[in-house]
Amino acid sequence: MARVLILLPQTDFDPTEVAVPWAVLARAGHEVTFATETGAAAACDPVTLTGEGLPRFARSMKARAQNCVLYAEMAASPAFQKPLSWAKVDAGAFDAFHFPGGHAPGMRPYLESERVQAIAAAAFQANKPVSAICHGVIPLVRAKGPDGRALLYGRRTTALTGGMENFAVSITRQALGNHYRTYPQSVEDEVRVNLAKKSDFKTGPLFPRYATETKPDRGFVVRDGNYISARWPGDAWTLATAFCRMV
Predict the structure, then answer these.
(1) How far apart, in whole angstroms, are the C-alpha atoms of residue 159 and residue 185?
(2) Residue 182 — pLDDT band, cuts 50, 70, 90?
(3) Is 188 exposed, middle or buried (0-12, 13-18, 19+ CB in 10 A)?
(4) Can you tell me whether residue 84 is helix, strand or coil?
(5) 83-134: pLDDT as tens digits
(6) Please, which pLDDT band fits residue 3 given cuts at 50, 70 and 90?
(7) With the C-alpha atoms ordered 101, 77, 121, 128, is the resulting torsion angle positive or negative?
(8) Considering the entire predicted model, what is its pTM?
(9) Residues 124, 227: Cα–Cα separation, whole Å
């Protein structure tokens, strides 16, 4: 079985984008390790987990009940409670890597970390399976390959689309301010300008479907070699199932 590393910010990651891949990989018998900035257990974005503070018409942004159950199981697991610190990660000791996303401000240290980017670069250089979803694609375009270009230069990818991000911000701004706006520039805009061609960014269907454990193929993913990406929590089961097959 493989050793898989899930990189986490200390706070504010999306619960579904971590718990679903963890569950699929662990059930398949793979050893899942977590890594955080300090080496202490991380905490997800409470707004997305509980829905507290979301206006009524934005309640669909709350994590689905089944995925909340998986998050509780994961959060209680020994691996989650005793993560590595980013500084102590030996990328060569792992067979595959997952980069989750999230919106809230606590994501920024993870998205901006040179150490996280170095781990990503090592994984790509060794051609090991890598998955990323939502904002988790950002470290992969901020990291540089041996040629000095973004790791994803010359590859096809998706990520949180501008349409999805702008919609989430617009329907929650009055209640939550810019909780769902991590940076002034959208994820899609930052990713696109770091690709070889703007067309290498794939937005997927205009009206996304939400994948579940029983219907894991509903979501949208983009695979390019040993790299696979997805857009939002609704793609998490699709991504996790495909990534597990890759591993």
Answers:
(1) 14
(2) very high
(3) buried
(4) strand
(5) 999 999 999 999 999 999 999 999 999 999 999 999 999 999 999 999 999 9
(6) very high
(7) negative
(8) 0.98
(9) 8
Are 83 and 32 a contacting pair, CB within 8 Å?
no
CA distance 206 to 47: 25
Q: How far apart are CA 220 and CA 74, in angstroms?
A: 24
| Total domains in the fold of the chain | 1
Residues of the domain holding 198: 3-246
Among 132, 128, 183, 139, which residue's Cα sits nearest to residue 157? 132
Distance from C-alpha of 13 to C-alpha of 106, rounded to nearest angstrom: 8
What is d(CA 204, CA 158) in angstroms, rounded to the nearest whole number? 8
Closest CA to 5 of 27, 24, 30, 29: 30
Q: What CATH number does the domain containing 30 carry?
A: 3.40.50.880
Sign of the CA dihedral running 47, 182, 112, 64:
positive
Asked whether 226 and 128 are in contact (CB, 8 A), the reply is yes
Q: Encoding tokens for residue 228? A: 């696979």
Question: Containing H/E element for 33?
Answer: strand 31-36
